[in-house]
Design goal:
With 718 residues, the chain is α/β, with parallel strands linked by helices. It is 43% helix and 14% strand. It has 29 helices and 20 strands. The strands form 4 sheets. Strands 7-6-8-9-5-10 form a 6-stranded parallel β-sheet. Strand 19, helix 27 and strand 20 form a beta-alpha-beta unit. Helix 13 packs across helix 14 and helix 21 packs antiparallel against helix 27. It binds adenosine-5'-triphosphate. Adenosine-5'-triphosphate binds next to helix 14 and helix 15. The site of adenosine-5'-triphosphate has 14 residues, from helix 14 and helix 15. Pfam families: AAA_19, RecD_N, UvrD_C_2.
């Protein structure tokens, strides 16, 4: 009886159940372990295990624990459990006195692989088992399948796509679209003249504005002589010969060329590096190519690419609609080209056809999407399951372009798809791709040292920010944070940039933070009081946000929301009384409601309806939202899906948004949630001004901590 397998399952399960009761484990993890424990009692049919081991109690005990661990890791954002990285003293993040007894008579983790292979609940993916083991990685079966699908689709699409490319036509189109614009250089030179800039300063501006890469090969005496006499933008065109195209490298042009040559491309870059501008030009090139090809369908209609634009959240989709709209507007191309580039974006959920109360979507490989080109913005927010569903629904011929910032936080749910893909960016291009890109752009490329990954030819990283110039503290701070070197971050604060302000955390600065927030939020509340339309009120609210790293406590979203609410009430800006709902209450949706078209992360503000209800003679309080297409919708509070007050929000939830004034607070005690990616994401939400409230110590430690997400995607793509 002592070695009875069920007794052992039960023992492990009982331990796991205790952890659930203590709040250390999710009920879901326990349930999954229970399910796996049952499956594990089925030996592998026809295997050696069936004959020799049948149901080894140690195996079933181990597989039960591993199932709970894999499920727990998934909850932490990891796609799989890495057996080699199991810390026996900290299972489920527990202290060692609780962790070690869970292992009891189990062997050291380096022996687990062999034991797990004997379980009926584990396979290499060739059988329908709840767990899949791939080397040292253990997956929940569905997640293994998602990863396989994403990897195989990306590998496939990264190979081709340039077959119908017309290199000469596209090369001249790219030359036109990415032609040098001397206006920026002229403006910079004028500013330098006012400041008494030197020849060295002028040289720096030329290198920066014209993307010079081989500066030593240029005749700087002749160039400077031309610069000092140039009295107009046109006069700078002498630089066409003095600074020839071969000495420059415009990465935006390269990014567009990469996307022309592949069916799958990634354009990654920090805020304001021109991802949207580049994709607008790329779409113009694709439309031009189709117009010139002049292929018609049976009805005689011209065949033009069906282009769709999407983003993971409603907010991000609304931002994309706005930014691509203005990028397309400012393109120097024919109206017929412009009019065939869509500017309306939607959410990925909407594109895939969300079905209420179901995880499945209307579109999948059996019912693919109708499109030729798909642009996905804010791709760092797309988790592994969503990427898998998107790729599954993408028609075989379609081109997929991912835009995003690889340095931002990974998706809320499991995976770091964009980060994993971009890990190959430093490998360089293959000989074949270097030649093709050279033909398309006129630039010369260094070829990859070794055989690069299957996706390396699909990647382009944009480095130069057009939003944050050299005098911008936000840009410098973001760069320093990404370097992972705290002393560089410290140096940036010391330089005294006007757009960033650091407040060492303390009771005084805490009060300053609340006072600042109240002053900033007065703008949108005054707009309501002045009877402005909901669209304007939402715009005013979107100018400011307080971002927190954590949810609970005085430095978290919940505590700060209450404090801000009280402070605004004292100021007479809002009047909540005992009511949950009051005029001016801003809320964020935390649960998708497909029927209402409201999604997790959407922000609305409560205001009175402009019309009087004929029955009551009163005006109804509604919560107004901006929809992805830019329209405004008012919803009765009672109809809203789950939501929270949103004067303060987590940095996680702020992804895909930007605010003119961003206040950011880190808790006084360090915790593993505080990472470089978190701080970088928070800082780069600020467009004009950043106010940071933190201790130097916590900020320093956060900058050195990297988010690591276990996954096998990079190895499948290598
Ligand atoms: N090559 C360029 N020369 C001058 N200005 C540029 C260039 N590329 C982009 N810009 C300008 O920089 C700003 C940011 O560009 P864009 O919106 O394309 O960047 P983005 O990377 O998409 O930004 P975000 O991170 O906000 O999505 C815009 O005002 C755009 O007009």
């Amino acid at each position: 009886m002592e070695n009875h397998p069920m007794l052992n399952h039960l023992e492990t399960l009982a331990n796991l159940e205790t952890l659930v009761r203590q709040g250390s484990l999710r009920p879901l993890d326990h349930q999954f372990a229970k399910f796996v424990a049952l499956s594990s009692s089925q030996p592998v049919v026809g295997s050696q295990a069936e004959a020799a081991v049948t149901i080894d109690p140690q195996v079933s005990r181990l597989v039960t624990l591993v199932a709970a661990l894999a499920s727990y890791e998934l909850g932490q954002g990891h796609v799989c459990l890495l057996l080699s990285q199991i810390d026996t003293a900290r299972l489920f993040g527990l202290p060692s006195k609780l962790s070690l007894p869970l292992l009891d008579d189990l062997p050291e983790p380096h022996l687990w692989q062999a034991l797990l292979a004997q379980s009926g609940a584990v396979s290499d993916g060739s059988r329908a088992t709840p767990l899949v083991m791939d080397g040292e990685r253990v997956y929940l079966n569905r997640y293994w399948q998602f990863e396989q699908l994403v990897a195989s689709q990306l590998r496939l699409r990264a190979q081709g796509g340039g077959n119908d490319l017309q290199p000469e036509l596209m090369a001249s189109k790219l030359d036109e679209l990415f032609a040098r614009d001397y206006r920026y250089l002229f403006a910079a030179l004028q500013q330098l003249e006012q400041q008494g800039g030197t020849a060295q300063d002028r040289q720096r501006e030329v290198c920066d504005k014209l993307d010079v890469v081989t500066s030593s090969a240029l005749d700087w005496t002749a160039i400077d002589a031309a610069l000092v006499v140039a009295d107009s933008v046109e006069a700078l065109s002498v630089l066409d010969t003095l600074v020839p195209a071969e000495s420059c490298l415009n990465w935006q042009k390269v990014a567009a060329a990469v996307a022309l040559t592949r069916q799958f491309a990634v354009i990654s870059g920090g805020p304001g590096t021109g991802k949207t501008t580049t994709v607008a030009k790329l779409l113009a090139a694709l439309v031009t190519q189709a117009l010139q090809r002049n292929v018609r369908d049976e009805q005689g209609a011209l065949l033009l690419p069906d282009i769709k634009l999407v983003a993971p959240t409603g907010k991000a989709a609304a931002r994309l609609t706005e930014s691509i709209g203005s990028a397309v507007d400012s393109l120097a191309v024919d109206d017929v080209v412009k009019s065939n580039i869509p500017t309306q974006s939607s959410t990925i959920h909407r594109l895939l056809g969300a079905i209420p109360n179901r995880v499945a979507f209307r579109h999948n490989h059996e019912n693919p999407l109708h499109l030729d080109v798909l642009v996905v913005d804010e791709a760092s927010m797309v988790d592994l399951p969503m990427m898998a569903r998107l790729l599954d629904a993408l028609p075989a011929h379609a081109k997929l372009i991912l835009l995003g910032d690889r340095d931002q936080l990974a998706s809320v749910e499991a995976g770091a798809v964009l980060g994993d893909i971009c890990g190959f960016a430093e490998q360089g291009y293959t000989t074949e791709q270097s030649q093709l890109l050279g033909q398309l752009t006129g630039f010369r490329f260094q070829q990859a040292q070794a055989a690069p990954s299957a996706v390396a030819d699909s990647l382009c990283m944009l480095q130069k920010s057009y939003r944050f110039h050299a005098q911008s503290g936000i840009g410098q701070l973001a760069k320093a944070i990404n370097s992972g070197k705290p002393y560089l971050v410290e140096l940036v604060w010391q330089k005294g940039f006007r757009d960033i302000q650091f407040y060492p955390l303390g009771s005084e600065s805490y009060q300053t933070m609340i006072t600042n927030v109240v002053t900033f939020y007065s703008d949108y509340l005054d707009a309501i009081a002045e009877g402005k339309v909901p669209g304007d009120v939402l715009k005013a609210f979107a100018q400011v946000r307080l971002l927190c790293a954590v949810r609970e406590g005085d430095f978290g979203v919940t505590g700060l929301n209450q404090r801000i609410e009280r402070a605004l009430t004292r100021k007479g800006k809002i009047a909540p009384g005992d009511e949950t709902w009051y005029v001016g209450r801003p809320v964020m949706i935390s649960q998708n409601d497909h029927g209402l078209g409201l999604y997790n992360g959407d922000i609305g503000i409560a205001m009175y309806d402009s019309e009087v209800d004929p029955q009551t003679g009163n005006r109804k309080l509604r919560v107004y939202f901006e929809m992805p297409d830019g329209t405004i919708r008012g919803v009765l509070p009672s109809r809203l899906p789950e939501h929270d007050t949103v004067y303060a929000m987590t940095i996680h939830k702020s992804q895909g948004s930007e605010f003119a004034d961003t206040l950011m607070v880190l808790p006084p005690d360090f915790s593993p949630i505080l990472t470089r990616e978190l701080v970088y994401t928070g800082v780069t939400r600020a467009k004009s001004k950043l106010y940071m409230f933190a201790t130097h110590e916590v900020l320093k430690r956060s900058v050195t901590m990297r988010t690591e997400r276990a996954s096998g995607l990079a190895s499948l793509l290598s």
